[in-house]
Every structure is written in structure tokens, then in C-alpha cells.
Write a structure and sequence with these properties.
The complex is a heterodimer of chains A (328) and B (351).
Chain A lengths: L11 H25 L15 H8 L7 E3 L5 H6 L4 H8 L33 H15 L5 E6 L6 H12 L4 E7 L2 E2 L2 E2 H4 L16 E5 L3 H16 L5 E6 L18 H9 L1 H11 L5 H24 L17
Parallel strand pairs in A: 1-2, 2-3, 3-7, 6-7
Antiparallel strand pairs in A: 4-5
Helix pairs in contact in A: 1-2, 1-10, 1-11, 2-8, 4-11, 5-6
Chain B lengths: L4 E6 L8 H4 L7 H17 L4 E5 L5 H12 L11 E5 L8 H13 L4 E6 L1 H11 L4 E5 L12 H12 L12 E3 L2 E6 L2 E5 L2 E5 L15 E6 L10 H7 L9 E6 L5 E8 L2 E13 L4 E3 L5 E5 L2 E6 L6 E5 L4 E3 L1 H11 L14
Parallel strand pairs in B: 1-2, 1-4, 2-3, 4-5
Antiparallel strand pairs in B: 6-18, 7-8, 7-17, 9-10, 9-15, 10-11, 11-13, 12-13, 14-17, 15-16
Helix pairs in contact in B: 2-3, 2-6, 4-5, 6-8
The chains are: A alpha/beta (328), B alpha+beta (351).
Chain lengths: 328, 351
């Protein structure tokens, strides 16, 4: 027998936290976009702007017992899970002060102390990882839930499909969040996903699958709340498909010749931050002044993170042999 | 007599919301929606429909039908005859209810004589708002299906086809089409309609849209309430049933701790006691203001309009809802008229 998890409604503080998370992700990504263009950032970056409601909606339902696995587009998940923003920025700049001492870069930001198993350069790499942590939580009886984020491209990987099967067979406390932003790199998901909706596949694995407007924080939060509570109660895994658009290219530098118009439409009409701000001010839960204060706080945070990252030292030759499993 | 034209609009998102997660509601995959349309095309072809106008979508339904038509090309004799299918593309697809509205409007303009709508109550509601006087045949591929019928698409296709060709007159004496009632909700300058029920909820946000927690519902207006319904109207259906063709509706106030409790299937997989503090007939015409100062209005089971203090949402039952096709009545008329009877041709001279 497991206890029924209480569904709490969002308090004023919760709403401020959510807004701060989404605004931090947006500012972080907009700034990385601008800085990347200067050539100072090494490696590849894949930006999460536009998808904030998913990371915030899911992670605002998690606690210290829980773990998440992310994707190559991982900054938003890291921030929503509470990874230090300055350390993230330093990591992206390849500096010694970064969350992985500057040796991982954007696609390997991880912080196990925050239950963040890492961004992941392997498409479909996250779902198998969370089957492991979910199994551990189940055996140890911690009540912890594990969440894997993956994209529409990742949804077609064998690793993801095997994980859905395993999680169902083992009745794991797992939640699979398919972030369908319409394109796997440059390939349209309307072409590449044979079931058209990723959520439709859930039935084949004997779990519920739901489609959520990924631009709407409240819809994402509510679906994630129920899926996470269900997993915690021993009810097994769920597949949630968030449908939305990414605001930037697949990677920075992507010319995006495969799409037109949808980003400006999404930014103007569907944007999760605008919709959130409109909603909470209409209901009177928060005021514009509350939101402006958060905006100022976040702007200062990002500015300081960039300044610190640029000033931080690069790893040295000696660092090459630290934090490795095998020393030759 | 112009062409016998049928419009078919299918909602790619119906049957996908949070109720799959919280109440084990059924799943309606895209492939099945596309199969239903193909079965209907066969029925349309059999009764002589000339042309079908099909909505387009990014969910894969129209694409699957398009591929099926392609597979038949050049090999038509092997297959049952299908009418010409015109895909209503060339208009932006927003992946919102507006897509259904746009498609239905185009069907009306293009002279559709009947519009078949695949979805749940939500889809039928949206299609009805744009159908004007063109009869609607709503088939269930959704979650809460009070308004649309759970019916085999082939049979529904025969009925729609017989109406479209005029073989069974839509406005004839057989009662093959009837005008449904409609609930209208006004919140400031926002207007929504419902075909089954309007509920006020204490939820603050539209969120995941579906209403699945009865404790949040404070007031309910039903255009009709059948004892065997699924969804919020089932509450009234057990206490003060109202038929679809009755001129009135029913309204009630709900409170979890009310003395009078009724066990009702308020969503698929959810049979719960609901406290009812008052229930009465709802006459067509008068405007009723809702009691709550703030909350969310749900239409046909989906949270749609958030409202705040000073907005005083108003609800009104109207008699001038959409014209709806009664599949059973159409096929009964067909039987009476012998429309599907054929005499087999044979030549007594041989050769």
C-alpha cells in the first residue's frame, strides 16, 4: 500500500518561483545566443528558449528525492532543477569554475547533488538512465520519482522505446516527458514520428499518454503533478507529450531553412512567459511589480554569471587527468 | 440539384487530454481516426456521394487518408468506389480549435449538405458553432461523449451520404434531423457555447482544461441530461432527467457537503458521490448569472474561460442550436423507402 499524495495548489511563493525559473531560463538562453555569436563560447549549444513551461511545469512538482535526465537541449532542465546558474555559464564557456570544471560544456552539465543526471549528447540517452534511478528508488523505498526529458527525435530511438517498455514492466516510478518542438534537428516530426503523436505510443506500452500544450505552464504543471503523484503512489510510469516550438535553431548557427514563420507567431501569440504573466496578474495572484522585480533580479544574475565566466580561468593541462575513471 | 457534397472534419487532438492519466479514459489513436474516415468514404461511395471535403491537420489524419488514396490510384477496380476527396489545405494550421472552425466554415461555403465531425464533446461544440444550418453528424473519437454518438463510421457514413444525396430529405417529415439546444455563456465580451453542459469551477486556471475533480464544480447548467450519460450532465441525469428534444434544460448547485448526494460517472473511469444543494428546470430564454465571483467556466467538460470579480458570467439556454443528423432515423427512412434495395441485373437471353 502506498499513501495518496496530496495535491497542493500553487501559492504566491510557488508562482514567483516558477516565474523566476522560466525567466532565468529565457534570459540565460537569450544571452548565450548573443554571446555565442561573438565566437567566445567553444563547442555546440542548443537553446531551450520557448520551451520553459515544460521544464518549470515538471520540475516544480519534484523534490529532493527525485532525479531527472536531460537532453542536448538541457539548460532549461538544469535551471529548473536548481543547478547553479553561474557554474552553468562557466561550464558553457569551458572554464575551470564550471559545473564540470569546464571539461563538459553545454551538453554535459550535470549536478548529482541536485538530482540532475546530466544533459546528454546522446539522443535518447536519458530514458535508460532514469529506469536505473527509478528502480533504485523503488527498491530502496525512497518515494523518489525519476523523469526523463527527450525530444521528438529521441522518441524514435530504440533506447527510449525500450525504456518505456522496461518502466512499464517493472512498474517504475518514472515519468517520460517528450518535448516535441516539431523538428529533430531539421526533420519535421509530422514526417518522422510514425504514430504522429508521441503520446499515442503510450497505449502500446500499457501506460497513460497525454498531450499537453507545452506553451502553457498551468497545463504542463497539472499534467506533471498528476503523473508524478501517480508514480510516487506506485501507479507506474506515464508518458507526457509537450507540444511547442523552439525559438532558436537546432544549434546556434543553424540557418533554419526548413521552417518559416512559426517562431514569430509563437513568440507573439503563444509565449509561455507572456501567458503566465497575463494569467497571474488577471487573477491578482501576482502584480506586474512582482514580476518586474523578478526580471531585474534575473537580469543581474545572468549578467554576473557571464562576467564571472569570462573572467574565470580555463582548465590547465594538469586538469586533463583529474576526474577520470582510469589514469594511464 | 448540385453536387452531393459531404464535409468531414476530424480533430487530431481529441481523446488525448489529462483524463488518460487521471481516470484511465480511452485512447483514440490517429490511425483509427484515419481508418474511420476511410470506412466512411466507402459508405459515401456506395450511396452516390460525389465529393468529400476533408479537413487537414498536422496530427497525421488527413495525411493517412491522402496516402490511402494514393495507394488506390490506378487500381480503383480492386477497391470499393470512393467519392472525389478534396483536402481543405492552403490555410494556416494553428493546432487549436480555430482549425475546426476554419474547416467547417469552408465546408459550409463550398456547399456541404452535411458535415461529419470526429471528436469528443469539445470538437462537436466547436464544429456546431460554425456549421450554421448545415446538419451535423458528430461521431465520437473523444473522451466525454454525450453529444457525439459512439457508432460505427460505416453506418454513420451511409446516413450522412443519404442526406447529402437528398435520397432522404434532411428536412423531411421523418425527423432525420433535429435542432439541438445550446447553452450560451457570456463573460464580458467573450462568448462561448456548449451543447451539453456549462459548469463553474473554483479552479483558477484553465490549465489542463478537462474537469475531473467534482469538488471544484459549484454550479451546473445542462441543455439535456440523460440518465445514461457520461460526464457532468450525468449528475442531473439521475435526479431530473431531460431529453435532448425537451424544450427545457436543468440547472443545479453543487456542494461537496450537501445532504443530497448522487453517485455519478462524471468522467470515464470516475464514479463519485456529488453533493447537490439544489436542482431545477432551466427554461430556454432567461439569462442566469453565476454565483461565483471568480473561477473558471467549463463548457462541455472543458475549462475554457477564466473570470474574475466584476465579470459576472451569464448563462442562457437557447433553442436554436445546430441541426443534427439522427443516424437511426435516416436508416429507418431508408428502409421504409427501400433506398438500399437493388435488383440484380441479369440477361435471360444469355451472353
Amino acid at each position: 500500500m502506498t499513501d495518496t499524495v496530496e495535491r497542493k495548489s500553487l501559492t504566491r511563493e510557488d508562482l514567483l518561483d516558477v516565474y523566476r525559473t522560466m525567466r532565468t531560463i529565457r534570459e540565460f538562453e537569450e544571452r548565450v545566443h548573443a554571446e555565442f555569436a561573438t565566437g567566445d563560447i567553444p563547442g555546440f549549444v542548443h537553446l531551450y528558449a520557448g520551451e520553459e513551461a515544460s521544464a518549470a511545469g515538471v520540475c516544480s512538482n519534484l523534490d529532493d528525492r527525485d532525479t531527472i535526465a536531460s537532453t542536448h537541449r538541457g539548460h532549461g532542465h538544469c535551471i529548473a532543477r536548481g543547478v547553479d546558474v553561474a557554474e552553468m555559464m562557466a561550464e558553457i564557456y569551458g572554464r575551470r569554475t564550471g559545473s564540470c570544471h569546464g571539461k563538459g560544456g553545454s551538453m554535459h552539465i550535470a549536478d548529482l547533488s541536485k538530482g540532475m543526471l546530466g544533459a546528454n549528447g546522446i539522443v535518447g540517452g536519458g530514458p535508460p538512465l532514469i529506469c536505473g534511478t527509478a528502480l533504485a528508488a523503488k527498491i530502496k523505498g525512497t518515494g523518489g520519482v525519476s523523469v526523463a526529458f527527450f525530444g521528438d527525435g529521441g522518441s524514435n530511438q530504440g533506447t527510449t522505446l525500450e525504456s518505456l517498455n522496461l518502466a512499464s514492466v517493472w512498474n517504475l516510478p518514472a515519468v517520460f516527458v517528450a518535448e516535441n518542438n516539431g523538428y529533430a534537428e531539421t526533420t519535421s516530426s509530422t514526417w518522422s514520428v510514425a504514430s504522429d503523436n508521441i503520446a499515442d505510443r503510450a497505449a502500446g506500452f500499457g501506460m497513460p499518454g497525454v498531450i499537453v500544450d507545452g506553451f502553457d505552464f498551468f497545463a504542463a504543471h497539472e499534467a506533471a503533478r498528476e503523473a508524478i503523484a501517480r508514480a510516487r503512489e506506485g501507479g507506474g510510469p506515464t508518458l507526457i507529450e509537450m507540444k511547442f516550438t523552439r525559438y532558436f535553431g537546432h544549434f546556434e548557427g543553424d540557418q533554419q531553412t526548413y521552417r518559416a514563420g512559426e517562431v514569430s507567431h509563437a513568440r507573439a501569440e503563444l509565449d509561455c512567459l507572456k501567458r503566465f504573466a497575463d494569467r497571474v496578474t488577471e487573477t491578482g495572484e501576482l502584480s506586474r511589480a512582482d514580476l518586474d522585480a523578478v526580471d531585474a533580479e534575473v537580469a543581474a544574475l545572468i549578467e554576473a554569471a557571464v562576467e564571472a565566466a569570462k573572467a574565470a580561468p580555463l582548465p590547465t593541462e594538469a586538469d586533463l587527468l583529474t576526474d577520470v575513471y582510469v589514469r594511464y | 440539384m448540385g453536387d452531393a457534397v459531404v464535409g468531414v472534419v476530424a480533430n487530431p487532438l481529441s481523446g488525448r487530454d489529462i483524463r488518460r492519466l487521471v481516470t484511465q479514459a480511452s485512447v483514440f489513436p490517429t490511425a483509427e481516426k484515419a481508418n474511420m474516415i476511410q470506412r466512411m468514404l466507402t459508405a459515401f461511395g456506395a450511396v452516390g456521394v460525389h465529393r468529400v471535403l476533408l479537413s487537414t491537420d498536422l496530427g497525421g489524419i488527413s495525411a493517412a487518408v491522402f496516402r490511402a488514396i494514393g495507394r488506390r490510384r490506378g487500381q480503383e477496380p480492386k477497391y470499393p468506389r470512393w467519392p472525389e476527396v478534396e483536402f481543405l489545405d492552403g490555410q494556416p494550421i494553428r493546432q487549436t480549435a480555430q482549425d475546426t472552425v476554419d474547416a467547417v466554415r469552408r465546408m459550409v461555403t463550398a456547399g456541404a449538405r452535411v458535415i461529419v465531425c470526429l471528436g469528443g464533446d469539445g470538437t462537436a461544440r466547436v464544429a456546431a458553432s460554425a456549421a450554421g444550418d448545415v446538419p451535423l453528424l458528430a461521431l465520437s473519437t473523444g473522451t466525454n461523449n454525450v453529444f457525439p454518438a459512439v457508432r460505427e463510421a460505416t453506418v454513420a457514413g451511409l446516413a450522412a451520404g443519404l442526406i447529402a444525396t437528398g435520397a432522404v430529405p434532411a428536412q423531411g417529415a421523418d425527423g432525420v434531423t433535429a435542432r439541438a439546444k445550446l447553452l450560451e455563456v457570456r463573460v464580458g465580451d467573450r462568448v462561448e457555447t456548449a451543447l451539453v453542459d456549462v459548469a463553474t469551477s473554483t479552479e483558477r486556471h484553465v490549465g489542463a482544461r478537462a474537469i475531473w475533480d467534482p469538488a471544484t464544480v459549484t454550479q451546473l447548467f445542462c441543455a439535456f441530461a440523460e440518465p445514461d450519460a457520461i460526464g457532468l450532465s450525468a449528475i442531473a441525469g439521475q435526479l431530473l432527467p431531460v431529453a435532448r428534444h425537451d424544450p427545457h434544460g436543468v440547472t443545479m448547485r453543487l456542494a461537496p457537503d450537501a445532504a443530497r448526494q448522487v453517485l455519478a460517472p462524471i468522467a470515464p473511469g470516475l464514479v463519485v458521490p456529488v453533493g447537490v444543494s439544489s436542482i431545477e428546470r432551466l427554461e430556454a430564454g432567461p439569462v442566469h448569472h453565476v454565483d461565483a465571483r471568480a473561477g473558471v467556466i467549463a463548457v462541455d467538460g472543458e475549462r475554457e474561460l477564466a473570470f474574475g470579480p466584476g465579470e459576472h458570467p451569464a448563462v442562457r439556454l437557447r433553442a436554436d442550436g445546430p441541426w443534427c443528423v439522427d443516424v437511426a432515423a435516416v436508416l429507418a427512412a431508408s428502409a421504409r423507402l427501400g433506398l438500399l434495395e437493388r435488383v440484380r441485373n441479369f440477361n435471360p437471353q444469355g451472353g
